[in-house]
Amino acid sequence: MNKLQITTAAKGQTRFVLKGVRVPQWTLPKAKFVESLDITVANGLIEAISPHSPTTNEILGLDLQGALLMPLMVDAHTHLDKTLTRNRMGDITPGLLGAIHAMMADKTHWTPEDVHQRASQALEWSYAAGVQHVRTHCDWWEPQTQPIAWQVLNDLATEWQGKIHIERASLIPLHLYADRDQAFALAKQVAASGPGALLGGFVHTSNWNFQALENLLDAAQAHELNLDLHMDEELNPNAQGLLRTTEIMQKIKFAGHVVCGHTCALSAQDSALALRTLDEVAKVNMSLVTLPLTNLLLQDAVTGKTPTQRGLTLVQEASARGIPVMVASGNVQDPFCTFGSYDPLEALSVGALAAQMPNVFDEATQSICRIDWLTGQASQPSFEIGKPANFMVLTQANIWGFPSQTHDRVVFRNGEVSPS
Ligand SMILES: [Zn+2]
Fold first, then answer.
1. pLDDT greater at residue 412 or residue 196
2. Which helix (H) or strand (E) holds 393?
3. In what order do the strands lie in the sheet with 68-71?
4. What spacing in Å lies between the alpha carbon of 387 and ligand 1's midpoint?
């Protein structure tokens, strides 16, 4: 059945069975997993999960013939304040610094209305793709003044309640934490912003300051904030932000959860150092996020030169150590990345190729679905009897080609086909 057929058949039905679907192995306890399942939906909830039976009964059965079914998605790292600005910029010097320069020039356009309009468009795309949870970063360059976008993103979190859960992380350059009192004042402001706010930072060799990093973690600890850091987004093998963060976390017994995005430098370092760093990451409460589209476009970017260093973090080595590694959209249609569509499956598709990820459907889909990996909270079973029927059916995809052929997608929210 294709999207139109499923949508037509399920319309107005409060009880039906999706027959013969294939779910990722990680979504069910090992003992319950079989290749082909029937999932019964009743009144918006999952009523039953059972091995596929070809027999029909009194309930409306939709024969999906092996179509893939997976949980709704999380986009772990986005920039809703910057997004959809690329079309109003001219030529940009390739690389991170050129992008930052172009972004600074564009900020004169960032009124509340402008940010709201662009971020809303982004969320529409996310919602249509089947996303249920988005974490966005928000540029924060003044120590005393909250950026305009911080409040706009909070308003959007309220507007989108019940559809997409939105978290905000303050993207503050590391040097603003160099003064200890200021670091604590920043953390206090973020903590006062309400639930869904995280303390963030931009950690790079160009602004490296160990004391500032220590202040940042101490301030987060004092205000019971989780962290989301832009970490070592570069190919400089001397970048040490990730390793030092793990050391500080162990020293101060950091109680919260830390997400480190990018960590590109691991790919440029001597492998003994990079692997030792990952051993330390595995000891602390930390997840990594890789941004394949952004990294492939920004790292080793020189006009007239084909890049050879691709900047993707050590996804396989981290996963082998039990470190949660997420894949996210990152920058979308802004000066940092001109591509993107807020479809985490697009990011996973690029990431799976670039990092040569094995078992993409059965294992790597965790990287775009596991909210607990992003938040550090206890894991929850994805599909369980009595839980809301939130998932999507990929009618044309198969596990070997996944995530190719995933455009024909039927998103179910609370047991109903979600408009897209
Ligand atoms: Zn980012």
1. 412
2. strand 391-394
3. 68-71, 391-394, 409-413, 416-417
4. 33
Cα–Cα distance for residue pair 262/77, rounded to 1 Å: 10
Question: Which residues have a Cβ under 8 Å from the Cβ of 53 and sit 6 or more positions away?
Answer: 38
CA of 265 to the centre of ligand 1 (A): 15
pLDDT tens digits along 130-140: 999 999 999 99
Q: Is the pLDDT of residue 87 over 90?
A: yes
* C-alpha of residue 410 to centroid of ligand 1, in Å: 29
* Cα of 79 from ligand 1 centre, angstroms: 6
Give 10 Cα–ligand 1 centroid separation in angstroms. 39
Please report the pLDDT score of residue 420 as a whole number.
Answer: 62
Nearest to 262 by CA among 213, 312, 337: 312
How many angstroms separate the Cα of 144 from the Cα of each of 207, 263, 289, 300? 20, 29, 29, 35
206 CB-contact burial (10 Å; exposed 0-12 / middle 13-18 / buried 19+): middle
Mean pLDDT of the chain: 95
Residue 195's SS3 state is coil
**Whole-Å CA distances, 334 to 2, 105, 131, 347, 413:** 34, 12, 20, 16, 30
210-222 and 180-191 helices, crossing angle to 10°: 40
**What distance in angstroms lies between residue 55's CA and the mean position of ligand 1's atoms?**
50
Compute, in angstroms, the gap from residue 323 CA to the centroid of ligand 1.
20
Cα separation, 296 vs 350, whole angstroms: 9
CB 254 within 8 A of CB 374: no
Report which residue type is found at 46.
I
Ligand 1 mean position, distance from CA 77 (Å):
6
With bands split at pLDDT 50, 70 and 90, how would you rate the model's confidence at 311?
confident
- Alpha-carbon distance of 137 to 146, in angstroms, equals 13
Give 332 Cα–ligand 1 centroid separation in angstroms.
Answer: 10
What's the CA-to-centroid distance between 317 and ligand 1, angstroms? 22
